[in-house]
Amino acid sequence: MRGLDITGASAADMALFTAWADEEGWNPGATDRYAFAVADPEGFLLGRVDGKPAACISAVRYGPGFGFIGFYIAHPAFRGQGYGIQVWQAGMARLDGRLVGLDGVVDQQENYRKSGFLPAWNNVRYEGVPQGSAGPADVGPGVSVVDAATLPFALLAAYDRRFFPEARDAFLAAWTGLPGRTALAAVRDGRIEGLGVVRPCSGASRIGPLYAATPGIAAALVHGLAERAGGPVAVDVPDANRAATTLVEQLGLAPTFEAARMYTGPAPEVERAGIYGVTSLELG
Question: What's the pLDDT tens digit per position in 104-144?
Fold first, then answer.
């Protein structure tokens, strides 16, 4: 086996990560890599063989104790030769001592179990054009859906922290504010009671995160985001939240893809009941 040279990813390499993910059918966001890069600039690794890209992984550090694995891909020309496991080991070494999460595709879940990951729930992607509508009676009295950019960012960051194990302010600022995206928030009496972001992708526009205090608020956000996307949308729904699964089924969206959320230890304590769609299968 020829030697593998593993280095940090450049901006051009990040575009390659996106292209490989698209070839795998993961439907990555068109501009996700710009937000990913600010989450942890050193968290993206690329392995090359004789100068040719062979395998990649992201191993992003959040705060002092959490990490997330994503983008674990070996190029088809280099599969079955041991290069993938080498970048895996490099990524896991970067997160040594932390609780680590990932979203594992079905055919890799047994390998992740062998590496010490345990399933917590499944994230099921639902796609389509939302049916029906959501009005004031659905969202509840006093709730307004507004452009999230009009709110103090500190409010958005504090709200996101309820649903994620660590603060991720730089990532969130980019994720909600990149060109071509729409971020909507549901607000009542100055409090945020829902947040959703939609971004363009090679296929259906993807919504994530989708947080909400009630199914009615989540429905209003989905309709508002889908209207701005102008076509079909996709949401990665945690099946641990039965209300979320029921909602997307009522909206007429259909399941198309599934990945298991897995951790190396107990799942972090977050407000799962408010998560109607996860932010990203690559970064959590």
Answer: 998 889 999 999 999 999 999 999 999 988 766 678 899 99
CA 39 to chain centre: 12
For range 57-73, the mean pLDDT: 97
Backbone angles phi, psi at 86, to 5 degrees: -70, -40
Q: Is the dihedral of CA 241, 244, 248, 250 positive or negative?
A: positive
CA distance 54 to 98: 27
Q: Which DSSP category does 242 fall into?
A: H
Smallest CA-to-CA distance from 75 within 66, 83, 65 is with 83
The pLDDT, as a whole number, for residue 1 is: 58
Identify residue 108 by its one-letter amino acid code: Q
C-beta atoms surrounding 231 within 10 Å: 10
Q: Compute the distance between CA of residue 211 and CA of residue 207 in angstroms, rounded to an integer.
A: 10
Q: Which of 152, 151, 179, 175 is nearest to 164 (CA)?
A: 175
Total-model pTM:
0.95
Q: What is the CB-side half-sphere exposure of residue 216 using CA atoms within 13 A?
A: 10
67's CB contacts (< 8 A; 6+ apart) are: 59, 60, 61, 94, 95, 98, 99, 100, 101
